[in-house]
Design brief:
seven-stranded mixed beta sheet, about 290 residues, globular, 10 helices, Rossmann fold, alpha/beta, binds S-adenosylmethionine, Spermidine Synthase, Chain: A, domain 2, about 30% strand, four-stranded antiparallel beta sheet
Length: about 290
């Protein structure tokens, strides 16, 4: 009988998520985190950081669609984009589909995540070394925005890990204030905003929303399905100095880009901001 191999992520102390895998492709401990790549039948190739699911071939489209397209349907004139994190390359791949975008700076603290994604996960990483608009910086995103000139980017996409380890600094007032400073007067910030379901994720969601709301005049939250993240119910934050993601939504302009998307669409854009009552209550009573 062939031995079965299972990857298990504790979503809480009493709720675990497991995926049967056929092969462990590679593992490496970097100065920042432990990187492990697996091959599975159900989710294809996937990788984890410090044991937590990051990206897999099967459901990456949900996350990378929803981090990339919402802002482009609000301000289709976005030209300069900053990605913080995003080492797997999926966010850079998706936002680079807009030929009107002129510059994509991607600041990833751990170069090994990029290099290993290019080797084992070309589905997400395939644009990183063949689009001249994409500039890779291997440094801390917090320091990058702190040292960057002000009033520069139209869009910042924070595709970070959870607020533990290297990702912790990306959920601070210092970081959000510097994002505000380096964004233009009509700038938009999209951030990985955790989840309303399990208590730990709820706590982080409330904390980051509270800080973003105190930093940006417009701070909204939208939801999407992400099967392999704890509870499958995940969120992004939409913050802006000028735009409201619903009243300034320009579906007819976005449709003209002619992009075929597998998760995002103009109807879903509106629906994603229609949150369950318990989530609205959590966000309003942080
Ligand atoms: N989609 C995944 C999620 O929601 O958890 C995250 C994708 S990507 C793998 C997250 C990346 O953030 C990692 O490659 C990690 O190295 C990077 N990261 C964490 N802290 C960072 C920091 N302070 N500056 C830049 N990149 C950071």
């Amino acid at each position: 009988m062939k031995k079965e191999n299972w990857y298990t992520e504790p979503w809480t102390d009493e709720c675990h998520f497991s995926i049967k895998y056929e092969e462990k492709l590679y593992e490496e401990q970097t100065p920042f985190q432990k990187i492990e790549f697996f091959k599975s039948n159900t989710f294809g190739t996937f990788f984890t950081l410090d044991g937590l699911m990051m990206v897999n071939e099967k459901d990456e489209f949900c996350y990378h669609d929803m981090i990339s397209h919402v802002s482009m349907a609000v301000n289709p004139d976005i030209k300069k984009v900053l990605i913080i994190g995003g080492g797997d390359g999926g966010t850079a791949r998706e936002i680079s589909r807009y030929k009107t975008i002129e510059q994509i700076d991607m600041v990833e603290i751990d170069e090994r995540v990029v290099r290993l994604s290019q080797k084992y996960l070309p589905l997400t990483a395939n644009k990183l070394d063949n689009d001249s608009r994409i500039n890779l910086y291997f440094e801390d995103g917090l320091a990058f925005v702190k040292n960057h000139e002000e009033n520069y980017y139209d869009l910042i996409l924070v595709d970070s890990t959870d607020p533990v380890g290297p990702g912790e600094g990306l959920f601070t007032f210092d970081f959000y204030n510097n994002c505000y400073r380096v964004l233009k007067e009509d700038g938009i910030l999209i951030n990985q905003h955790e989840s309303p379901y399990f208590e730990r994720d709820q706590r982080e969601m409330k904390r980051s929303h509270s800080k973003i709301k105190q930093t940006f005049p417009i701070a909204k939250v939208y939801q999407f399905h992400q099967t392999t993240y704890p509870s499958g119910h995940w969120l992004f934050g939409f913050a802006s100095k000028k735009y409201n993601p619903l009243t300034d939504h320009k579906p007819e302009v976005w449709e003209k880009f002619g992009l075929k998307t597998k998760y995002y669409n103009s109807d879903l854009h509106k629906a994603a901001f229609m949150l369950p009552t318990y989530v609205k209550d959590l966000l309003n009573n942080e």
